[in-house]
Amino acid sequence: MVYPFDVNSAITWLGEQADLVFVFFDPMGQALCKRTLNIVEKLSEKCGDKLLFYLSKADAAGNETDRQRVMMQIVQELCRRPGLNKCGFEMPTIYIPNPQRPSRCVNQIDGVCQTIEKTINQAVQKTLDQLEKDCDLICSTISSRQEQDRADEAHNRSVRLHSLVCGALGIVLPVLFVLSFIVNTFSKDQLDQLLGEGPARTLFVFTGIVMYLWDWIPEDGQVVFVIIFGAFCYLLLFLSKYFAGRGNKTMTKKEKRTMAEYSDYIQDIVKTKKGSLYESYLQQCAAEYDF
Predict the structure, then answer these.
(1) Is 119 part of a structural domain of the chain?
(2) Domain range holding 230?
(3) Which segment of the chain is annotated as a signal peptide (predicted)?
(4) On the chain, which terminus has fewer CB atoms closer than 10 Å, C or N?
């Protein structure tokens, strides 16, 4: 039969995911074909600690001498492969009892059941412990993300303030500079008539300061000052644009609400459910021990 996938790789992958891998040798066919042993050897390399060997249908192997012969043949075949030649090799005999055909062969199927039960208990406890660790990790990640978002918002407020200040100065200073020369052409009475006494007085004070500073500059250095002043204003506008692009991406309100809902769900629902499951598991273990 041709399968649309690699059967050997699928079996190997399943063995890696499983907690236990049982290998049953049938004394009738002995299951010693090359393909089977290749898969078993590959499983032994990747998950040898989970690999357990059993002689199934042991009651059909004849008397004790015949069973020993079959087991010796299986062990001999396994020892030829380096991946399966291990110290402390065990192969218990198991079979399903038949009341109509009693057998004197030792049936170790109860040991198989105990092994499965022990592994299940360990897996349950490990899963519950891992669940708590995963919950703590998720909550910690959400908390870190929220703290980072708050830090990004504070950073964005800071860079927006810097951008606003630089942009305002880059626009106000040249406007005030040009306006000072325009206002200087009007008399105080004309300004009072145009703007009113209060605004005219304020404008006259500011423009008067600019003109007072301008008069301090020697005439041969005024052109250089205008160039430097223009470059400074351009630098302020450039810094404003630079700070405006330095903001960090922050979460939206919907994302913040979703994060908070996830955290609350884990704390109130998942962890509570985990606690009840762990308590139920301990009660079951105690009941089995008492029994």
Answers:
(1) no
(2) 124-290
(3) none
(4) N
